[in-house]
Design goal:
Helix content is 31%, strand content 24%. With 516 residues, it is α/β, with parallel strands linked by helices. The chain has 3 domains: 236 residues, P-loop containing nucleotide triphosphate hydrolases (Rossmann fold); 183 residues, 3-Layer(aba) Sandwich (Rossmann fold), CATH 3.40.50.300; 76 residues, no CATH class. The protein has a 6-stranded mixed β-sheet, sandwiched between helices. It has a 6-stranded mixed β-sheet with strand order 16-17-18-13-19-20, with helices on both faces. A 4-stranded antiparallel β-sheet has the order 2-1-4-5, with helices on one face. Strand 19 and strand 20 form a beta hairpin. The longest helix is centred in the middle third of the chain and has 16 residues. The radius of gyration is 24 Å and the shape is globular. 46% of the residues are buried.
Length: 516
């Protein structure tokens, strides 16, 4: 680790913040040193995002103070924080797609010529320098709309670095990056630390924090638990500090029951699938692995009628449906949970109560005269909140005020609305903390124990190996492997991703391409 200047660069003192009566932050103090990478850890809803939003001027604190180089920053705004030297890259990117890369990098600090016209040549030159500093080979004249998510993430960082900010705050910066892009980002962060820049790093991935951070501050339920030198604490202890309870293991023991086939996809062909066939039985979790864009998400969307099939079929509990729609899928007993909860799963203006019951009609909620029973819906909501450990439990609070993990739980809570026999989860644990992941896996365990069939689509190979009884691998829209038993290994999954060697496969419910 780096040699750290013990003098504080950034200080937050006794910050507090409430949203709609719910306390998000309660008297939290935090400090960042020069030339330090300081990790913020905590479950979703612990207060991490609220803390950095206050520091970066996105929201005002109800109480407390923020100091930079010993000077208190009053009436802090996002523009004022950046001008003072606090640069923040939020999880939700703030680039303007219709503008060029150079324009986005200079947003709010445009170069002007005489007559107040934009000095485009200087802006292009400085944008190239900022991009080169990150090793990003992107034409600064290109519109942001045509770039990948990973490129956008790095441009956000380039924008902050262009402002010469001594403080850099990164919120889940690797969520959209490949392994290679993540390694390149780490190299850049280590260089910035050596230059004396203080970095606040938020991630749910302990391996990343272990690789980068010097110190770690743990938050729980809006309060600071402790600040520790990372070298002095184990991962297990960090997990316990975050969760406030002992977690013996991340993945629960889930016994397969292997009943009748509840979901069968036969010869599915669409714009993203080619003759894909899968089976999921009652009492089992079947995983779907694959590279981004390889067809794994298209498989889940096809099951729910969101991906139009050119040929093939989807069959739920023996009922074959060639012209699927979400309404028909739910009526037949299939529920789908999309990967992007903000744009596909939730309505930002809804309350928690509305978010839980959006879509499926709650069993027993329709009275004999055709009205909805508020009592039946309230009972269902109470059960979902308790079973999934949604915090806060205030059902009248707007869903936008909940953390990402609790928003995800609200989406998964729809499984309690009716007696769905098949559950298709697409990336259900992306961007949520360890404690929330455990709650999601326990929910899947309850579904399996009740005889439901679970299809788990995930980019996290460790997750699939930890909870799935079988794993299909999708490559270029085709099912190329069906891994069972001892053949469920990371090596076989990765080999199937790239077709680099023949994985040991047990050929079962799908059409498996044996040429890999």
């Amino acid at each position: 680790m780096a040699t750290i200047d013990a003098s504080s660069l950034l200080e937050a003192e006794l910050l507090s913040k409430s949203y709609g009566g719910a306390r998000a932050l309660n008297g939290v103090s935090f400090d960042l040193r020069r030339g330090e990478i300081h990790a913020l850890l905590g479950e979703n809803g612990a207060g991490k995002s609220t803390l950095i939003k206050i520091i970066s001027g996105s929201v005002p604190a109800d109480a407390g103070a923020v100091r930079l180089n010993g000077r208190e920053l009053r009436s802090l705004t996002a523009t004022g924080a950046l001008a003072a030297g606090i640069g923040t890259v939020h999880q939700e990117l703030s680039l303007i797609p219709q503008l060029s890369v150079a324009d986005n990098i200079h947003l709010g600090q445009e170069r002007l010529r005489v007559g107040r016209l934009l000095d485009k040549s200087t802006m292009l030159k400085e944008a190239r320098e900022a991009l080169e500093r990150l090793g990003l080979q992107v034409d600064p004249r290109r519109k942001v709309a045509g770039l990948s998510r990973a490129e956008m993430q790095l441009i956000e960082i380039a924008r902050v670095l262009h402002h010469r900010s001594p403080v850099l705050i990164l919120d889940e910066p690797t969520a959209s990056l490949s392994h290679g892009e993540t390694e390149e980002l780490f190299r850049i962060l280590v260089e910035l630390r050596a230059q004396g820049i203080g970095i606040v790093y938020i991630s749910h991935r302990l391996a990343e924090i272990r690789a980068l951070a010097d110190r770690v501050t743990v938050l729980r339920d809006g309060e600071k638990v402790d600040t520790l030198e990372l070298a002095t604490v184990t991962d297990q202890r960090l997990v316990e500090l975050m969760a406030g309870r002992s977690l013996d293991k991340l993945f629960p023991q889930i016994d397969a029951r292997h009943g009748e086939v509840r979901l069968r996809v036969g010869g599915a062909t669409s714009s993203g699938l080619h003759d894909a066939s899968v089976e999921v039985r009652a009492g089992e979790i079947v995983g779907v692995a694959g590279l981004v864009g390889g067809g794994k998400s298209e498989l889940g969307r096809a099951c729910f009628g969101l991906e139009r099939l050119e040929s093939g079929y989807v069959e739920v509990d023996g009922a074959r449906m060639r012209k699927l729609s979400p309404r028909r899928a739910m009526a037949q007993g299939l529920m789908y949970y999309p990967p992007d909860r903000k744009t596909e799963g939730l309505v930002p203006t809804a309350t928690l109560a509305e978010a839980l019951s959006l879509g499926p009609v709650v069993t027993g909620a329709v009275t004999s005269n055709g009205f909805l029973s508020k009592r039946a819906i309230a009972d269902y909501n109470d059960h979902a909140v308790q079973a999934l450990r949604i915090k806060p439990a205030n059902q009248e609070l707007g869903i936008r005020w909940f953390s990402g993990g609790n928003q995800q739980k609200a989406l998964l809570g729809r499984s309690f609305a009716a007696d769905f026999g098949v559950h298709v989860f697409d990336e259900p644990t992306v961007g949520i903390d360890i404690g929330a992941k455990v709650d999601v896996y326990e929910h899947m365990k309850r579904l399996v124990a009740a005889g439901k069939a679970v299809l788990l689509i995930s980019s996290d190979t460790e997750e699939l190996l930890g909870v799935a009884h079988r794993i299909y691998v999708v490559r270029e829209g085709r099912i190329v492997a069906d891994l069972r038993g001892d053949d469920r290994t990371e090596t076989n999954v990765v080999n199937a991703f790239f077709g680099t060697s023949r994985p040991q496969v047990a050929v079962g419910g799908g059409n498996v391409d044996r040429s890999v």
